[in-house]
Amino acid sequence: VQLVESGGGLVQPGGSLRLSCAASGFAFRNYVMRWFRQAPGKERELVAAISSAGSVTNYADSVKGRFTISRDNAKNTVYLQMNSLKPEDTAVYYCNYPGYGYWGQGTLVTVSS
Known about the structure:
mainly beta
């Protein structure tokens, strides 16, 4: 199994970023996919989840209305569109699926002026 996150970077408050997670080594289209994040000194938290077919999504209250999770099962990729970014969104972002106990390298998002 490989989960490779990308798309992070430095962005000003109010800006946008689109994260990608390329998956391989498992039946991607059959699994719920999730985005997590871990800010410095804090525990990892669930940000968003999407059903296997992409028809159902869920978000943490802190990102609802600003972030959008989506997936392309033909490309084995899950995305996180992040708009109206705030300094408190600064974190390393990871993707994962239920039952998988390992983490990729993540992608760092820094929101700062």
